Every structure is written in structure tokens, then in C-alpha cells.
Amino acid sequence: MDSKAVLENGLRRDPFGENEFMHRSSLTTSIFLLILTLPVFSIGAAPEVNITADTVARYISGMPVKDEALPASLQNLPAFRSQREFFEKRWSELEPQRLDPMKRWATAELSSARNDTETLFYPFGGPDFLHAFTFFPNANRYIHFGLEPAGLMPDLLTMSKQETADMLTLIRKSLFAVLEWSFFRTNDMKVDLIRSRMGAAPLILSFIARSGNEVLKVDYVELDAEGNLVSVPAPGNVPAYQGPARGIRVFFRKNGDAAPQEVIYFSLDVSDSAYAKNKRLHSFIKKQQGVVTYLKAASYLMHYASFNRIRGLILDESQHILQTDSGIPYTYFSQKEWDITLYGTYTRPIPLFRKRYQADLRSAYVKQAQALPFGIGYNYRKGTSNLMLASKKDSQ
Question: Quick one: which of 83, 121, 300, 327 is 20 to 30 A from 59 by CA?
Fold first, then answer.
């Protein structure tokens, strides 16, 4: 089946979770599919040379790229060779030590949550698509947010060699922590991404490609006042955002016969003071179907009264919540409403968050907890980590 047919079949099954896709005329659908498969970048003086979104994702994540897909100057760039060496080394260690055990564990323990997942909501997850996809590979839509800017789709044909080299170097620097420890160092990453204007986009693209997916299309999006997702024009690759909920969206698929999926990243402040002024995300999440939430390395923000609203939204809208102890405090999960399964071990938070110790969670772990065969979160070493799966009783 060719790519156009696969995409058309996928849209008929409403993989994006939007009813509008179900009711478009065949002509409109054909136009959309044509646009979706067009190359992202082209050189005006040489129209036969173009770079697709998938080629960009593969290049910046150090993956093999066909010779004809890129100019020789990019293929031979020393920084690209460094990129390939970095990712090949990291992935050769990451897959057997962390990703493969995660996949096996998730297949065994998350079957019900996976079956219910139409929308995977990853608050405070930033550009960490890698772990969201590893645990929940079949969601129609992934929704991430963080304080880091959404950023720009890299335009490899207009960037200088130095700009390209600097971008590849920054990607390696930004991803080191999450590949080494399973989480981003928020302050360092925010400074780097804001200073470079790179934003979250290249990091998300790198993870999509490295997870074995094909990138289909990248566009800029935002939320209007009613919480509807709208496309944003970007003349000259400069998005013309109108509101405060600014984002980027990537369409991808697992292989040539798979239905398309999408990941959306928003740059947002969801503290209560900001939330009161901007309820767009709240309205958007309430429109989603089959919401499952994943929380990791969330800085214990929802332990504070200043994050009551986002905590309440997650508890109200989620059918399942998979989280480390840095997510929502254990005390908010009523046994009348939630079925709880604990994995790993919980003793205390790392010193930076020592005041966020939960005595009730410790007592629950002492009573009963199942094995967790990998490390994740702030206590990232195997044997020191924890995960909790909370499932609403009415979703069983």
C-alpha cells in the first residue's frame, strides 16, 4: 500500500482524535494528504533538490541518510559525523540497559492503560517523546508542554555550516541528561534552548526518528480562546502566533503501513496564577478522548498549592496515570476512586527535593510493591526508582 493510501485509511479511522477529519469531503482529504507528503524545504534555484521532514529528523539524530537526500556539504560536515558517533554510542547502551526492559515491562503491566490510550498527556515532560512513546506507543495523539519554547523546524538548506554544526552540538548537549539519567535538567535545557532559538522541535524530531518512526510533516499550532487547536502560518519559517499557547506539531508513523500519529508540544506556564489568565490548555484537554497521563521528573510542582488547577485537571480527565513520586502526591488518590499498583522502591526523594517526602507513600510501599526492572526519574539507578499506576475504577 502506498503512503497516500495508508494516510487516507488512517484518517478515515480518525487517528488524530478530531471529528473534523471524519467529515471532510474526498476532495478536501486528497488535498490534505497531498500537502502532508510534500517536502518541507526546497531551493528556489534548484527545485529538484529538496529535504523532507523525515530527512531532517534523521540527519539531526545522526541516522543514515541517503546520498541523494542531502547536499554533499551536509553529508560531509564533521559535526554530522560527531552526531552519528554520539547517538550510535548512546543508543547501543540505552536500548539494552533501559529501553528494552521498559518495553517488556510495559507490555506486561500496562496493557489495560495502553488499550484505553487515545491521548497521551505528558505534563511538564518537555520534549521527552522518547519515554512517552516507549511506554505508550499506540496513542493517536501525544500532548506535551513545558516552559521551553516550541522552537523552529531546522531549515538545513538555508542554515550556514556553522549554524548547522552549532545546532547539532546543542542537540547533543541538551539530550545528554535524558539519555544518561532519563530526565532533562530543566534549568540547563531552558537556558540553552532559549539562547539558541532552537527550542524543543529538534529534540522531539530526534526522538521520533530514533524511536524507529518516519516523520511525515511538521507545522506550527496554537490554541485559540476556546481551546481549539489551530494551524499557524509561518512565512519564511517564522510562525505568526497570535496567542499565548504556542506550539509545534509533528505527524509521524511507525512504518509504511501504519496509521499516522501526532505529537504536539506547547510552551506554557501552568502555575495557578498563569492558569487563571490562560485556560486554553484546560479547555483543549477536556475535548480529548481516552486521556492517559504520564508524569516523570515533574519537579514535585503538583505538591504545591500553586499548581492546584493542573493537578485537578489531570485527576478529573485521566483514565489512568503512570507516574513517579515527583508527580501528584499519593494522598490525592482515593481508594474509592482509584486502583493503585506500586512498582519499584520508595524511600525518599533526592536531596534537592528532600522536603517532598511522602510518609503515606512510604507506608504503602512497605506493605506491597512489585518489581521494576529499570531505573527512571530522579532516582534513576535501577533498584532505587519507583512508578505508580493509578487506574480509575470506572475505567476498568
Answer: 121
